[in-house]
Amino acid sequence: MSIFDSFYAKLQAKYVLIFILTGTAALYFVYDNLLIASDILLNARPSVKPRVNEAHNGWTSILGCPLPEVDPWEPEDIKFVGKPPDKIKECNIVKNATSMLENGNLWVNLTGNSENTSCSYRCLNYKSDNAASPGAWIPYKEPGPAKVICDWVDVECKEGKTTEYRQIHSQIYTSEASNLTRHRYNVYILGLDAISHSQFHRTMPKTAYFLENEMNGINFKHLSKVGYNSVPNQMAALFGQKFTTVRHAPQGYPLFNMSNPYFCKRKHSKDEQYIGFVYNDLGFQTAHIDDMLPLVQVYPNCQGFGFAHTNHSTVPLSAAMKDKQFKKAVLNDSCKEEFHLSVEFFEAYIKAKTPEAKFAFTMLTGPGHDKLDDPYRYDDYFYRWLRKIRNDIDDAFLLVWSDHGHHFGPFYPTNHGQTDTRNAMLTVVLPKKLRETPLHPVVQNLRQNSITLVSQYDMFPTLLDLATADFYSSDSFTKQLTLQNYQKLNNRIREVHGDSLLRPLTHRTPTCAGLGIPFIFCLCRWPLFTPKDEAELKKVVINDLPPVLNAFIKSIGAEDECEQYKVNEKKAIEVYEVATNLVNPTSRMIRSKFSITAYNGKLPFHLQVFFELTTNGTVSLAGRIHRYDTGWASGRCRVDEYEQHFCYCKSPPKKCKGR
Ligand SMILES: *[C@@H]1O[C@H](CO)[C@@H](O)[C@H](O)[C@H]1NC(C)=O
Ligand SMILES: *[C@@H]1O[C@H](CO)[C@@H](O)[C@H](O)[C@H]1NC(C)=O
Ligand SMILES: *[C@@H]1O[C@H](CO)[C@@H](O)[C@H](O)[C@H]1NC(C)=O
Ligand SMILES: *[C@@H]1O[C@H](CO)[C@@H](O)[C@H](O)[C@H]1NC(C)=O
Ligand SMILES: *[C@@H]1O[C@H](CO)[C@@H](O)[C@H](O)[C@H]1NC(C)=O
Ligand SMILES: *[C@@H]1O[C@H](CO)[C@@H](O)[C@H](O)[C@H]1NC(C)=O
Ligand SMILES: *[C@@H]1O[C@H](CO)[C@@H](O)[C@H](O)[C@H]1NC(C)=O
Ligand SMILES: *[C@@H]1O[C@H](CO)[C@@H](O)[C@H](O)[C@H]1NC(C)=O
């Protein structure tokens, strides 16, 4: 893929799994097997009946949490995760910028252009979370400058009908209307979509070094994702709610539905417990900085807010990319990718002297979403950029964060890939004053919490705490806040599913069951092994699993829409046992991968299903079906996201409607 991925390619890659398993799949399977823990001694009986005489030493309860040991430089993973490029392709700027936006003044240099060239400019105004409204073109009058009163300005110079010059500039425009009385630290999130903890350290070592060593950033080692992709994880941080449904789980794990029942079905309202509104309520200015459309709350065909939900936004930039000529001029011809322009805007926001404190949610997909080795190319850029702005964040918390790890392609189904995809990244850089006070309770708590299991549900309460806590009083951070406390701080809050990372987490059980993390997305890793009764278990998969899957389809009244499950016995069937003690001590946890028949063999190669097997042979699902290769694409005849994963629609999959 070229440096300049097309907008649509990115869009597809971000949310639609484009990975189609081919003949190489077999190879990955072999590889996957090699990684399976083989040091567990046991004597499983050659039957699915109760286990006897098994060595359970080292087995951990399913209600416990064996934290994974990760090695970002694991030699065996290199064939999947790639290496630093030998050399980064050079790019020649076709036309240097001869226009400039400084302190609200736009300068356009016509030097070198013909006498007949005339320039004009327009504001790209922010209208909603999926649309911008460009203002009228205004002729640029020599010798300038022109006063610009908007965040985004589009500049064009034409000779006759031919565009000679096009450029985009950004600033943070604020009408100086209010006087600030209350001081708060600024809160900035720099989000790097799909870059896991390991991947960040492997591919962006300079950036990680700078954050962790020069800025004393506190790096969280065990941040678990709570859902499959961007939506449930980013939305958990932004709304503090559950945007995933769990109707099957191991015994002892919670079952739950999306806690915002209207998500995607109707527009978010102004009363939502959205973090941007919370910050606005508390007197902050807000920015949502992204490098593509749709924004997470509008994906895939969701309604979003339908209005401008933050004070500043990159929506006008992303919306303008539909104009091919604009896109070529501001990206290709300028040797930039869209995220570079977003970072420039973020920098302007960080540097803006606003009367209010500032909050920014930045989420960049360009640097690392598509390919595991992409971020190598941007490490130096982010390193230099952070060095450049280091003094501008003295009065800010900077959270460098990701929503989840890579979730498609050949690395994803491997054992290491499965750990990696669940292990999101978080490094907290403190305001200078706190950086220099290592004994401050906030610093101590963050350090303590950085080595325990935390989840994306902790982001929202942490952001709330950052906006409201009294950092000058040392006993502010001795105990956790309750829902009632949060509601007193902001009356939009209706539900909170995690805890503030600024406070002790000693009151809770640091396990996936304890933190409400769905089992199939849980970072805790129990070893797998090949049981002695593997052959019998394969028969269970063939004979007993499909009726359970079909019964669920029936229970949701979808048997007319979805194909019946039948295991394809000609394709590989894989079974592993999970070395874990279940709530019912005689039950066993099995991970199976298999193919199904339907669609005349056109169906994806394999599914993964975890299930519990009781002594009498009863199968119960431990989570939803995991479709490595297709995501929702073939389940679109169902509305409910959870059901989509279970359903292969009989009619050809409905095309994504776009917007
Ligand atoms: C752009 O500016 C750089 C540095 O001043 C110069 O080396 C380069 O030749 C210029 N490119 C064009 C196309 O004018
Ligand atoms: C405009 O031209 C002048 C004179 O050549 C030069 O000094 C200045 O840097 C130029 N400004 C921009 C934005 O290119
Ligand atoms: C500018 O436009 C005028 C009128 O169309 C034309 O006569 C003249 O040749 C043009 N000058 C240049 C340098 O193109
Ligand atoms: C802000 O404060 C200044 C100086 O105290 C005062 O002159 C000005 O009117 C205030 N502006 C607003 C909008 O309150
Ligand atoms: C989730 O929603 C389904 C369908 O409305 C309902 O049957 C089920 O009881 C709900 N589960 C929980 C845990 O609330
Ligand atoms: C930011 O947006 C909020 C909500 O729309 C609004 O109340 C507030 O005045 C805005 N602040 C600024 C500085 O524009
Ligand atoms: C941008 O540049 C790349 C590489 O030079 C090229 O492959 C691509 O087609 C260009 N895109 C556009 C929109 O011009
Ligand atoms: C098998 O055991 C499960 C729970 O242990 C029980 O719910 C189920 O009814 C049993 N099935 C049969 C056929 O005995």
Runs in which pLDDT lies below 50 for 5 or more consecutive residues are: 1-47, 49-53, 653-659
Beta content comes to 15-25%
Q: Any guess at the CATH architecture of the largest domain?
A: 3-Layer(aba) Sandwich
CATH superfamily of the largest domain: Alkaline Phosphatase, subunit A
| Ends distance | 25 Å
Name the hetero compounds present: 2-acetamido-2-deoxy-beta-D-glucopyranose
Q: What's the CATH topology name of the largest domain?
A: Alkaline Phosphatase, subunit A
State the strand order across the main sheet.
13-12-14-10-15-16-11-17
Sketch the major β-sheet. 8 strands, mixed
Count of all domains = 3
Structural class: alpha/beta
Radius of gyration: 26 Å
- Tally of strands: 23
Percentage of residues in helical conformation: 25-40%
Number of helices: 20
Q: Could you name the CATH class of the largest domain?
A: Alpha Beta
Shape: globular
- Arithmetic mean pLDDT: 88
